[in-house]
Amino acid sequence: MQYAGRVGRGRRRRGDRPGRRARRRNRRGQRPRRIPALVTTRRGSLLAFAEGRGALRDDGDIDLVLRRSEDLGQTWSRITVVVDAGADTAGNPAPIVLAASDRVWLLYCTNPASDDTRRSIWITSSDDDGLHWATPRELTSEVEPAGWTWYATGPGRGLELASGRLLVPCDGVDEAGVRRSHVIVSDDGGAHWRRGGSSIPDTDEATAAQLPDGRVVLDMRFEGPTRARAVAYSDDEGESFSEATFDAARPDPACEGSLLAVPEGLLFSNPATTEQVPRDHVTVRLSEDGARTWPYARELDPAPSAYTALTRLPDGTFAIAWESGDVLPYDRIRFARFDLAWLGAR
Questions:
Q1: 175-189 pLDDT, tens per residue?
Q2: What's this model's pTM, rounded to 2 decimal places?
Q3: What is the C-alpha to C-alpha distance for residues 36 and 4, in angstroms, rounded to an integer?
Q4: Which CATH number fits domain 3-343: 1.10.1040.10, 2.60.220.30, 2.120.10.10, 2.140.10.10?
Q5: Which residue in 5, 108, 256, 273 is a FRET match for 33, CA 20 to 30 A apart?
């Protein structure tokens, strides 16, 4: 492990304070922050998104907040607010970094503070490494069918496929009350979106990656009795998915996980436990065969720890942001850098 600390603990740089600072309310003098999303821009900056919450609950006054790093996470900017929903909820950040431009798309959801079934889906973008963000526009009518009672983007990251198609894992509850993971896609660079394929009932909070053979793997949290990751594959860039199977080698407490395609294979992180309370034992794994086996694994945080976000750094190493705490795993979002030697893979 090359560096570990709390996101934002490093020195704050003057002149890097766009937007207003997030309101701070927890016992450390800060708003609670949850649900990390971490990406590396084309210019090499780190963007660490999170939900800035008024409390630990999943609804109420929640903003989407951001910290930036231009030195591989050694120092971080002040917290800035990307989306302020007033007294209502903005959450589930799902950023996408484009390969051939400096644009970063950010998809997210909103709902009234008192009614999390009235979900809206939105998108914004930045062309300057997260310093400024475009006026958000709503995507609800494009991607959410009438009658659905829940919708969530990510959380985590979306991806640009080799063909240029943009793909974001999502989940929703239909008019019959069935929850499923699915994806939404854009074939015009993010201007328009539509729903793609979906998976089995009781799946949600999925993460996705494209394999070298072009297939898309969808890796999902499962809300049913099986305490393992659910996995499905697409041969048509997310238009449809195979029947999901469960990966007994990766225990999961029904929690978000992070999947990242890297030159060496697939990296994956999650709290590797079957106990739902507290979530703990965040572990990082590497697969070299398209998520069939995971021969390399190392525990990162044995203490209470939950949602994670992985990214690859410009120097070829990797970084992870994860929720961590003392009794429950939601006191802070921590950050670490690592390489394959730390995983035992090189």
A1: 999 999 999 999 999
A2: 0.93
A3: 16
A4: 2.120.10.10
A5: 273
